[in-house]
Amino acid sequence: MSNRTPLMAGNWKMNLDHLEANHLVQGLAMALSDAGHDYSKCEVLVIPPFTDIRTVQTIVEADSLDIKYGAQDVSIHDNGAYTGEISTAMLTKLGCSYVVMGHSERREYHNESDELVGAKARKVLDAGMTPILCCGEALEVRKAGTHVDFVLGQIRAALAGWSAEDVAKIVIAYEPIWAIGTGETATADDAQEVCGAIREALRADFGDATADATRILYGGSAKPANIKELMAQPDIDGALVGGASLKADSFAQMAGFYA
Ligand SMILES: O=C[C@H](O)COP(=O)(O)O
What we know:
By secondary structure, the protein is of the alpha/beta class.
């Protein structure tokens, strides 16, 4: 068993207004408390839309919750005339500890490149937060059998020039696009194949200490019914959960399945 602390991360995507966010975080805290959740054995993270972050911060601070929270994206700019952008400083001020970048939905709908994703990860790390760097292949790539090379290419392009020490501080989330929101989960073997290959690539590029320290998550229709098997895989350290993170009970249940 590794000494990496598992991470159960709920990406709310573009769902929930601030009242619904309030309700979900309180319900999640209660469900985790009822289950006797041990946060030192599995970190629990919620990733609301920007408009809900202040609400989540208020509840977490008022109730001294151990739930962490973060953002779904960030700007590579510091401040100024960048309409619609949100800076790392704005997020740290709100107490965010994680930021997602490179989600396939942003790559597809906002044309985000590996280089931009890498620059966002750099910015987040420099601001003292933890980047969650997403990668994953489309169905055509999977069918062509080139998914491992494709995913490693995304990661290597984003992390080009990084030091081993910095790579050890990030989280990588492998999310096969064909499994996102479709109900079609990669099998535990499929997920392990790619997550294992990511770890071996980190070993080759950055050395043993980094490969053994970097947390790798699986994402794509993860839910209470399949999380146990996914978490039992040697190179899967948690999950980036979409739909199932919008229900307090199911997400709390998933956080309880650390290996
Ligand atoms: O960021 C989360 C992933 O896109 C997975 O979403 P999903 O669990 O709804 O398939």
